[in-house]
C-alpha cells in the first residue's frame, strides 16, 4: 500500500517540472519533525511497552499544489520490559540480510483464514476466533 | 470443511477446501498424546523420564523424535535443548505431529488443507495467515499468504511463559516474538523457540543464516526484522 502511494507521489513530482516551467511557480519546502507516542501496552508479566516514533513531515508547495510526505526516522521504546537490558543492538553486518519495519497493528479481517502465534493471553479467544474466521468465509 | 478437537492440551483445527477431513487425523493426534504426553503417567516419554524405559527400548517413533531433538540442539547451539526441560520433547512433538497429520491428509487425496495446532500452522495450497500481534491479543502484527508452508511462532505471550535461555535459565530480553516459516513445522517450531530464547541481541542474526527457513523477529523496541524470503501479504 505504502509503495503504491509513494509511486503516485513520484508521478506527481515528475509531472511538476513541466508545470513549473510554464507557470514559473515557486517551490516551497517545509520540513517539520515531531515525536509521537503510542499508549502504554501491557505485555503480560513483561510489564509495559510504550513506543515513540520520530516522524518527519515534508510539505512541498508548488503554486497551489501541495504534496505531503511523512517518513518515520526513528523508533524508540521509552518504556519497555526488561529495562535492565535497554539497548537492543543488532550487528551491523546482519542488517543488509534483514528487512526492517516498524511493528504495526492490523485488525482481524475476514480474509484471514488462519491465525498463527499465540496461545496464552488469549487462548480461548484465538480458538473461537479461528473457528469464526472459517465460518465467515462461507457467508 | 473444518473440524476442531481438543487434543494434546490445545485446540487443533484441521480444515480442507476440497473434501472431508478424515477421522484418522484426530486418531493420530490422540496416539501422539498417549505416546509423548508428559501429563500421562503411562506414556513412553513419562516412563523414559522416570528411568523406567531406556530410550533404546522405546518405540521406533519415540527414538526418531528424540534423535531429531538431539540434532536440533546441535543446529541451534544448544538453545533448543529438551534436557533443559527434563527431557520433555513437546516443543518439537507438536510441530512434528502436525507434519505427520498433513501427510495423512495428502494421502487422503486432499490438496488444499490447513492445520492449526495452538497457533502453529501447516498448509497445503495457498492460505491467508495472520500472525498475532505480540502485545495486542486481539490484533495482528502481520498478514501473509502462505503456500505449502509451515509457520511457527514463539513468544513471551505463549502459554506458561516457558521459553527460557537454557544456558542461563533467564527469560530472553529485548524480544517479543519470532515467527519461522519453512517446509517442516517441527523444525520451524524448534528454530522459533531457540531464536526467541537467544533474545533480541542474537536472534535476528541467527535467523539470517538459516538454510531453507525464513524468519520475522519482533523486537521489544518495536522493530520487525525479517529475512528476505519471509512471505508477504
Short structural description:
The complex is a heterodimer of chains A (139) and B (233). Chain A is of the alpha+beta class and 139 residues long. Chain A has 2 helices and 6 strands, in the order αββββββα.
Polypeptide structure, described:
The complex is a heterodimer of chains A (139) and B (233). With 139 residues, chain A is of the alpha+beta class. Chain A has two domains: 2-105, no CATH class; 106-139, no CATH class. Helix content of chain A is 26%, strand content 36%. Chain A has two helices and six strands. Chain A has helices at 2-23, 123-136, and strands spanning 27-37, 41-42, 48-62, 65-79, 99-102, 114-116. In chain A, strands 1, 2, 3 and 4 form a four-stranded antiparallel beta sheet that branches. In chain A, a hairpin with a 2-residue loop joins strand 3 (48-62) and strand 4 (65-79). The radius of gyration of chain A is 22 Å and the shape is elongated. The model of chain A is unreliable at 1-23, 80-96, 120-131 and 133-139 (pLDDT under 50). Chain B is an alpha+beta fold. Chain B has helices at 24-36, 44-49, 60-75, 90-107, 185-198, 203-208, and strands at 2-7, 10-16, 113-117, 120-132, 140-155, 175-182, 214-219, 223-226. Chain B has six helices and eight strands. Helix content of chain B is 31%, strand content 28%. Chain B is globular. Chain B has one domain: Roll (T-fold). The model of chain B has no long low-confidence stretch (mean pLDDT 91). In chain B, helix 4 runs antiparallel to helix 5. The chains are: A alpha+beta (139), B alpha+beta (233).
Topology:
The complex is a heterodimer of chains A (139) and B (233).
Chain A: H1 2-23, E1 27-37, E2 41-42, E3 48-62, E4 65-79, E5 99-102, E6 114-116, H2 123-136
Antiparallel strand pairs in A: 1-3, 2-3, 3-4
Chain B: E1 2-7, E2 10-16, H1 24-36, H2 44-49, H3 60-75, H4 90-107, E3 113-117, E4 120-132, E5 140-155, E6 175-182, H5 185-198, H6 203-208, E7 214-219, E8 223-226
Helix pairs in contact in B: 1-4, 4-5
Amino acid at each position: 500500500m505504502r509503495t503504491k502511494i509513494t509511486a503516485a507521489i513520484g508521478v506527481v513530482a515528475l509531472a511538476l517540472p513541466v508545470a513549473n516551467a510554464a507557470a514559473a511557480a515557486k517551490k516551497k519546502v517545509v520540513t517539520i519533525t515531531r515525536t509521537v507516542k503510542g499508549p502504554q501496552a501491557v505485555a503480560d508479566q513483561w510489564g509495559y511497552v510504550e513506543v515513540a516514533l520520530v516522524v518527519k513531515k515534508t510539505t512541498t508547495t508548488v503554486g497551489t499544489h501541495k504534496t505531503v510526505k511523512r517518513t518515520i526516522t526513528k523508533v524508540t521504546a521509552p518504556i519497555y520490559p526488561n529495562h535492565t537490558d535497554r539497548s537492543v543492538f543488532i550487528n551491523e553486518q546482519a542488517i543488509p540480510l534483514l528487512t526492517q519495519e516498524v511493528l504495526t497493528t492490523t485488525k482481524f479481517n475476514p480474509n484471514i483464514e488462519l491465525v498463527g502465534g499465540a496461545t496464552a493471553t488469549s487462548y480461548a479467544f484465538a480458538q473461537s476466533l479461528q473457528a469464526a474466521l472459517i465460518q465467515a468465509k462461507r457467508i | 470443511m473444518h473440524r476442531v478437537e481438543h487434543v494434546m492440551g490445545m485446540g487443533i483445527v484441521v480444515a480442507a477446501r476440497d473434501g472431508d477431513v478424515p477421522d484418522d487425523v484426530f486418531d493420530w493426534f490422540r496416539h501422539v498424546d498417549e505416546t509423548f504426553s508428559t501429563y500421562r503417567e503411562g506414556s513412553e516419554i513419562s516412563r523414559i523420564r522416570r528411568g523406567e524405559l531406556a530410550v533404546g527400548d522405546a518405540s521406533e517413533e519415540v527414538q526418531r523424535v528424540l534423535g531429531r531433538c538431539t540434532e536440533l540442539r546441535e543446529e541451534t547451539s544448544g538453545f533448543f535443548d529438551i534436557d533443559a526441560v527434563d527431557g520433555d520433547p513437546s516443543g518439537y512433538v507438536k510441530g512434528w505431529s502436525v507434519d505427520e497429520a498433513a501427510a495423512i491428509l495428502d494421502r487422503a487425496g486432499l490438496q488444499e488443507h490447513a492445520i492449526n495446532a495452538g497457533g502453529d500452522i501447516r498448509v497445503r495450497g495457498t492460505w491467508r495467515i495472520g500472525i498475532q500481534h505480540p502485545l495486542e491479543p486481539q490484533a495482528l502484527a502481520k498478514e501473509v499468504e502462505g503456500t505449502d508452508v509451515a509457520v511457527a511462532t514463539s513468544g513471551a505471550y505463549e502459554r506458561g511463559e516457558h521459553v527460557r535461555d537454557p544456558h542461563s535459565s533467564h527469560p530472553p530480553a529485548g524480544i517479543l516474538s519470532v515467527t519461522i516459516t519453512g517446509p517442516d513445522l517441527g523444525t520451524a517450531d524448534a528454530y522459533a523457540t531457540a531464536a526467541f530464547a537467544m533474545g533480541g541481541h542474537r536472534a535476528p542474526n541467527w535467523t539470517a543464516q538459516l538454510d531453507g527457513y525464513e524468519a520475522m523477529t519482533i523486537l521489544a523496541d518495536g522493530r520487525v526484522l525479517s529475512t528476505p524470503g519471509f512471505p508477504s501479504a
